[in-house]
Write the structure tokens for this entry.
Amino acid sequence: MKHTFILPFFLLCCNVACGQSQDQWRDSLAVLNKQAAAHPDSMELQLSKAAVNLQLLEWEDAVKACNSVLAKDGNNLPALFYRAYANNNLRRYELARNDYEKFLSTAPRNMEARLGLAYTYTKLKRDIDALNEMNNLVEMFPDSSIVYEARAEVEKGMQSYETALYDIDEALKRAPGKRSLYVSKAETLLALGRKKDAKRTLDEAVRNGTPKGLLLEWYEKCE
């Protein structure tokens, strides 16, 4: 069966993109609950419920909604992704890993699922597996700043700071001016004891439009 996959980026950005407040999300969930009660066999309604549960940080309810879908269709991609996302937030990392891996057996080139799996590996202290996932992502998506930035975070966690610097610079080539990258670079330079270079990085962020007031914490660490 072919599945339409709802991009998980929606889950991360929808408050801004849709202009929904938490109260409005709760109202939406109330409507969905009524509709689901009237149509208990609708997988689409259960998936919509799961998406709103995630938006409301209701992890257990999201898992239940996904379980309902997966009981009918064990390879449903949105349900596998949503359940993995919820289980990560519940610190059920092995369960999350299982769902991400099953998802990727069907859709191996999905960036968000591979990023989710790499994150899960880091929580399981499987840093080499996480790094391997990130290497695969760089090969698949060589023009993505997100992938280079994510690999740098894995490398920083492994204290491979020089390698992380390379990846941050590669990410900046693809997303010049991105504030989080300048902060990540400054943080990495500070870990290497290079305070002057870290300050220059922060100054560059300011020149590229980041308000200096947002970087004061990092400027203080450069003194």
In short: Residues 5 and 78 are 5 Å apart (CA to CA).
